[in-house]
Amino acid sequence: MTTQHPTPEAPMPFYLLSPEVPANAMDEVYANEPRTPLRTVSARMEFEFPLRTEIITSVGTYAVTEELAEAMDEAGLTGYRLGPCTTSIAPWVEDPDAIGELPPLHCLDIWGIPLEHDLGIRTKGSELIVSQRAYDLICDRNPSLIEFSNRVDEHGNTIYKV
Questions:
Q1: Over the Cα atoms of the chain, what is R_g?
Q2: What is the C-alpha to C-alpha distance for residues 121 and 118, in angstroms, rounded to an integer?
Q3: What's this model's pTM, rounded to 2 decimal places?
Q4: What is the pLDDT of residues 44-77, one digit of tens each?
Q5: What's the distance, CA 78 to chain centroid?
Q6: Contacts for 151-157: CB closer than 8 Å, 24+ residues apart
């Protein structure tokens, strides 16, 4: 008679999420606690290109639409708070009408620990690491992000697609 040993539960996959950069983060306000990387708690996003996804980034600052913020809250995702985010169109944009009307955005104050919470910031490059459930929620709503996202290993190193 052989004894079967339980198999350890496989760890939850995590992903490096690379949102679009249609705007420049301006006048960011950072958390005043010592932490690396800095946490952006509010920002102003100055748009140069149209908003095509519900999550964007600029220099380590992340922002989401009202709709995505509500979906993240309903899903019970961990590792973030919502902060204020104002928007404007950059004054040098030649055709502001091409950008269109900008929806309300929320700044993501990401305090989560990568590979532990649903959202976390990898120190190297201020990159967004998300859990499988956050990845599924965000990418189901924004399929264009799948092409620019990669899985990470248990140490947070990128596993590049082939």
A1: 17
A2: 10
A3: 0.86
A4: 999 999 999 999 999 889 999 999 999 999 999 9
A5: 12
A6: 151/13, 151/14, 151/15, 151/16, 152/14, 152/15, 152/16, 152/115, 154/11, 154/115, 156/14, 156/114, 156/115, 156/122, 156/129
